[in-house]
Fold this sequence. Notes:
The protein has 806 residues and is α+β, with helices and mostly antiparallel strands.
Amino acid sequence: xxxxxxxxxxxxxxxxxxxxxxxxxxxxxxxxxxxxxxxxxxxxxxxxxxxxxxxxxxxxxxxxxxxxxxxxxxxxxxxxxxxxxxxxxxxxxxxxxxxxxxxxxxxxxxxxxxxxxxxxxxxxxxxxxxxxxxxxxxxxxxxxxxxxxxxxxxxxxxxxxxxxxxxxxxxxxxxxxxxxxxxxxxxxxxxxxxxxxxxxxxxxxxxxxxxxxxxxxxxxxxxxxxxxxxxxxxxxxxxxxxxxxxxxxxxxxxxxxxxxxxxxxxxxxxxxxxxxxxxxxxxxxxxxxxxxxxxxxxxxxxxxxxxxxxxxxxxxxxxxxxxxxxxxxxxxxxxxxxxxxxxxxxxxxxxxxxxxxxxxxxxxxxxxxxxxxxxxxxxxxxxxxxxxxxxxxxxxxxxxxxxxxxxxxxxxxxxxxxxxxxxxxxxxxxxxxxxxxxxxxxxxxxxxxxxxxxxxxxxxxxxxxxxxxxxxxxxxxxxxxxxxxxxxxxxxxxxxxxxxxxxxxxxxxxxxxxxxxxxxxxxxxxxxxxxxxxxxxxxxxxxxxxxxxxxxxxxxxxxxxxxxxxxxxxxxxxxxxxxxxxxxxxxxxxxxxxxxxxxxxxxxxxxxxxxxxxxxxxxxxxxxxxxxxxxxxxxxxxxxxxxxxxxxxxxxxxxxxxxxxxxxxxxxxxxxxxxxxxxxxxxxxxxxxxxxxxxxxxxxxxxxxxxxxxxxxxxxxxxxxxxxxxxxxxxxxxxxxxxxxxxxxxxxxxxxxxxxxxxxxxxxxxxxxxxxxxxxxxxxxxxxxxxxxxxxxxxxxxxxxxxxxx
Length: 806
């Protein structure tokens, strides 16, 4: 009785002439020939490809030699049998050669237990001829192909599986057969009859005979789905690390969360947030929910692989989650939920593939839920995760599959929770930033002028834009301040830093500039006082007690005063860019002065410059956020601003819009402020001035000159008050001032009366006693006029008052 180790081994005796003289039963079993059919025939008749004879060839010595090799032999049925042939010489007692004993074994002969080891190998093994015909497969390969060995042997791979023709695996097999180079490949495909896409690692190599010719292609492969999908999850997490939270914007971050897992992980992702989160307000506490409570959210983002579109970043859509719904339960319990259409494991195997990911022991308690109702929405599974950060509930995220049969796994739940956790922190950071930004912006806009004051010296228009959505609010500001004598001050400045502190500092400086402007300081002196103020404020930044320092404090400022009577512009700069001045003929008027040091340095002087402007000149005051960016330097931005400024444009408001659209950098990181002014000149007929001798007898003359001029302007109703005011002010100038004394009347939006003298002594109101002879003049002036004041000049002082015209 044969054992498992018995094999059809042939023993052949060949005489010195190469004729078969002996044939064993193993020869019949191996090659099909009987002893009667082979004894007496040349041994070369058994060879498939007899080699040509030569004197030195083994065939000349009986076609055998004392050697071993793989030889293709002819089977009786015409097929070829590759066999290992070993020849042993026979000798007589006298040493004479009697021939050879040749043993013939099937090529690859090994114990039967080894064959069974290959057959039962859990890896898929296969052997193909160079034309990709199946020569041998094991049972694992048959299970993968869903075909038996009898169905595939002798068939061409491409014809048997036309759906895999011209695919990576088939093409690589052909390439190995053609080049003889081994190859490795990872392929992802869904086996026949499976609902899960498996990942297979395959190695392919050529099989050569003793002559080095490629006789077959072999391959082995194993299912590495668990490892592959774990790697894919890591790749998605890596993408999420760099793709979620790139912008400090709540809607933008929600859209990043919705896009990242599609289509690699889910087919549809929706992100619902509380309205408080969208507004930057504090969200509800995570402990404030009960499962039986309806929850109203807003759909902040949604992304679908099927539609390949994002929900527009416009107005959000209200979404309500009914009491007892999965979303409501998740937010109440703080735990995620997985819904599957069918019970995993139906059909005797896990519907979502092999590996630890499919092990039900890895599901947390209560998961997964078998919910056939989601099939009505075309879904095969859904993971719902509450969106929480820092103890607050922000909303809920739903990851759904609808275009693939694979069910979610326990590892998929972990991935969904990781993605949601990353996004929750980013969304909460965006919410906090949005709240701070809104607060700072509200503060800043409340400190900026809500409307430019009415005055006739210049026509003005302005624009202010905070930094981009990824930047904090800065401290840029501008202002227009009416001054005495029909003059106007134009101011623009920029505080160092961003955020609430910069906005508050800007408010301080703007208030300080208005206060200093009210006492009519020249531009250089005003900046000197402002510099001292910032130095004092900087000392307040030193931390005291448990308070932290608020940061660096510094600023730049440009202060300019325009007089429509003389058409002169006097300006000084503390580290701020000089204004652009465009004449009516579209030529640029240069300002020779250089900006002084920024405010807060101290100890350095500021220089005032005076420029005479033609009527209708265009002034552009701006902050560096308008002209500077990462893509261009300041000089390029200023050149672009000058190019866009068009003096012929009649509307300054339209010109402001044109400038902001053309010059403003695309990716702004700083605030930008623009103040445009077109100068006007006061009609010379609306100004009258006279020299007054320092003699009390000149007071009646001064009154008559003023009244006559007011009557000539057609302002008879103002004659009485003007006569009283001129009488008081001229009397005070003659009594307390120093010559020369000059009286000037200006007809503007109000009637202005000015008395100038060479004294630096400033008058002030005082309460006169009952029996005092004086002290009532300025009180009378203050009561009868709209306003009055004193401004100091290089040659003394000017006392002015203004009456409201009917």
